[in-house]
């Protein structure tokens, strides 16, 4: 199995369910219609239920937005929640797509993480000091 970003394990792909889905999609009269801009309501509802049950997060389907991938999610977050020049603490090593914050003119501080959570404590201390 290749451990590279964006390379799926084709042997593990569920071909039979995918074929059934594709056949149903071809016969669906609204297959090319626009859906809700935040993503399919049913998918967002299922995700909200999963977050409540397994992550103890109180989220509604209206609070979930489905995007194409991690880069799209981070760009959306950077644009919506962080003003230019605001600091953004990014875990190092971390998500290679986190440069979305830097690309939007956000200052970033790369922070090493450890198994004991010392990064979190350092971030809290830095936040209190400023």
Automatic annotation (TrEMBL):
* Compositional bias annotation for Basic residues: 119-130
The signal peptide here is none
Q: Which Gene3D superfamilies match?
A: Type I PLP-dependent aspartate aminotransferase-like (Major domain) (3.40.640.10)
Q: Which SUPFAM superfamilies match?
A: PLP-dependent transferases (SSF53383)
Q: Where is this region: Disordered?
A: 110-130
- This chain belongs to the protein called Aminotransferase class I/classII domain-containing protein
């Amino acid at each position: 199995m290749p451990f590279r970003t964006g390379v799926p394990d084709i042997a593990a792909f569920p071909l039979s369910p995918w074929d059934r889905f594709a056949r149903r999609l071809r016969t669906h009269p609204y297959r090319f219609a626009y859906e809700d801009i935040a993503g399919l309501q049913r998918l967002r509802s299922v995700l909200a239920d999963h977050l409540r049950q397994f992550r103890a997060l109180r989220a509604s389907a209206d609070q979930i937005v489905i995007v194409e991938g991690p880069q799209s999610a981070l760009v959306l977050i950077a644009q919506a929640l962080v003003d230019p020049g605001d600091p953004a603490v990014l875990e190092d090593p971390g998500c290679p797509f986190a440069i979305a914050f830097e690309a939007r003119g956000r200052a970033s501080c790369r922070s090493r993480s450890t198994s004991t959570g010392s990064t979190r404590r350092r971030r809290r201390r830095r936040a209190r000091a400023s």
